[in-house]
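User: Can you fold this complex?
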Amino acid sequence: DFDGLLKKVKEILESNESRRIPKTPKGTRDFAKEQMTIRKKAFSIITKVFERHCATALDTPAFELKETLTGKYGEDSKLIYDLADQGGELCSLRYDLTVPFSRYVAMNGLTSFKRYHIDKVWRRDNPSKGRYREFYQCDFDIAGQYEKMGPDFEVVRILSEVLNALNIGDYEIKLNHRKLLDGVLEICGVPPAKFRTICSSIDKLDKQSFEQVEEKGLSVETADKIGTFVKIRGPPLELLSKIMGGTEGSELLKHNASKEALGDLSILFDALYKSRCIDKVVFDLSLARGLDYYTGVIFEAAFKGGVQVGSIGAGGRYDNLIGNFGTKQVPAVGMSLGIERVLTIMEEKAQNQAVRATETQVLVAVLGDKLAVAAELVSELWDVDIKAEYKVHKKVMKHIEYAIDSKIPWMVIVGERELNEGIVKLKNIETTTEEAIPRSNLVGELQQRLKLNP
Amino acid sequence: DFDGLLKKVKEILESNESRRIPKTPKGTRDFAKEQMTIRKKAFSIITKVFERHCATALDTPAFELKETLTGKYGEDSKLIYDLADQGGELCSLRYDLTVPFSRYVAMNGLTSFKRYHIDKVWRRDNPSKGRYREFYQCDFDIAGQYEKMGPDFEVVRILSEVLNALNIGDYEIKLNHRKLLDGVLEICGVPPAKFRTICSSIDKLDKQSFEQVEEKGLSVETADKIGTFVKIRGPPLELLSKIMGGTEGSELLKHNASKEALGDLSILFDALYKSRCIDKVVFDLSLARGLDYYTGVIFEAAFKGGVQVGSIGAGGRYDNLIGNFGTKQVPAVGMSLGIERVLTIMEEKAQNQAVRATETQVLVAVLGDKLAVAAELVSELWDVDIKAEYKVHKKVMKHIEYAIDSKIPWMVIVGERELNEGIVKLKNIETTTEEAIPRSNLVGELQQRLKLNP
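Assistant: Here's the predicted assembly.
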């Protein structure tokens, strides 16, 4: 009958419901095995550079009070993840690491702080290839009053050191100054109220067409004039002295903002030159950066290798953000590595190499069924920090297959006969050589071999 | 007038509103400086042990689909943080690392997986001293079919290795078997439907009073009988053989569940004995563990040092959790270190020691105002991986004070005179000795001194 059939269909559907394969939320990923190996390696390289620059690590909560994030991200605020209102405070997942850093400095009344932070952030963006809702950021920031342009120099140098250390290929760091942009816009006759809007258009500017800027309600003449300025790019020291000696320079030096900016850049480029990392830097007047809070030097690193990934790092000076949290003004400058893009490049490179997920050095293979025999042998290896696994199984081929599959270089084989004779067999998987050694010498003999052939 | 006054008060209040000091959400913390140094040290020690056991790292999203967490935590489900419904899937912050691990194994159809995971979890618990809403967990789990009791042995051994390596002081690992408990309850005449409820009462049992169990509707006689069993505790091998030879044993061997458990424990204790870590283990029939999903061996580590912190690690076998995700049954066993409690102990110990937040080896002190001079010198040190800071300031005492305050052992001092003479001054802060060395030998001379006195 129909009702019986309906009931059956319902049952099948319901059982399928509970039998369906679980998944992760949209735009999020698990990281495991080889991918995790690459991530850990990258994080360790980055951490080493950050610590060489004597920063301390900071770890902040995954979520902040909603009010902490309010008014910091302009239009992008709609991408913030809120926690459900389950009673108590309203909270949101952090959107970046800069705002939590600023909140921390303000909250603790610090006047100077140099910190790095490598952790996840969350954005309710539309997931697409290479764009996720949960991803890592690697930030380095310096807050406080220091020698003029000192911290600005150091963060650019750090970005360059990190990209060199990661060994991903060639890149360039485009660099500009917000106040120089302001000067340009002033010279071109843009009303100050429109500075920020035009800025973000310049940032997206495809140098061939200038329609976007014209759409913002500027005259074609003004847009053309801006266009002439922002086409200027070149090696920092040379370009700066060319500008200072040319007609652009004399115009720019008349305006306070751009005069200050050119002075800043002169100090910065000198330091970068002496630090021998200026060859990676391009002075580019078209660089504007989207974020509202920048107030001085801004920069962005672009990968020049084969893979098209866009920006692989960026940063700048933001002197008002910490003060926004309602205590005192503390100037700050920082940089954020585009780590997910860097990892894409590293993963692509790794496809041609054999990356191991674990680094097991020795497999203790016990023939038979005695767990205690394996426990005793493998524990001696763990005691001296040898990375070891064990396996208890009757068939020796099962053991050998496992060692080969897992790329484990050494095997310790013990069966009934070896136990009785007080020996163990040491097998080198690559050379397939096997030797019998006294049970009591196992640790020493293994340590010696691992030293020679780690 | 009153209205004017009111307006003024309103203005002050509103300006205070925006001026108030920001804070972190209730029950969450920032970690920085010395506290972070201790955390990083602990995580690195733990990771080293986990990797010695050849596990791979797994990183899962901070939030899971709400349905993934549903029905896993019993009463405690009310503590799960939900994300706001902003359209799309309903998600919740992870509550532990075990469910994401199980979800991962099921989702990828794995039949074996050995992983560790060190990361934050979130619980909407009432914050109190030592209890937070965001905290770290350090988990090690083995899923898959292996030699009998092999993974059980390894996770207990790992917990012991980790606690030894962290060097926090004496501890004991209480160990029991869920099926042995089931046997005890069966023998004592508890109806199977009540097993889980009674179990959690035993777990909270203060051995002096047995009221809680009686409240669950058991007869005084039954409760007394349970009481006799669960008072049994002692050294594993001795106690096991005593039980097997005594009246309790003959009763327990009659029941399938407890017979199986005693067999398991015999294999496990033999392996732990051969592995030379059984002296930390106590066979304790009162241990029950709160979580519903355990199906075999269960254990819990208690700190025996001065600080009262409760459990510092726990775990057990859970053979049905992965199968719950609707694919195939994969048995699993794991352990979770009570890392926040361990850190409390480590922080307490560190109060008597000088913990440095950074490890700056050298301060490059430039007298005057030339950033480029500092940039050149300090970059040479960074290039050879020396941890260096720089400072540009006219007054030498400012530099020295900073080095002393920051516990930086070496200073490179450069003023106008040194620049002209092509030398630098090398100052050892501890011995207060100062020597002039040629500018061109700086890196070599420093490396030599840091090697002797790092």
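The two ends of chain B are 71 Å apart (CA to CA). The longest helix of chain B spans residues 33-52.
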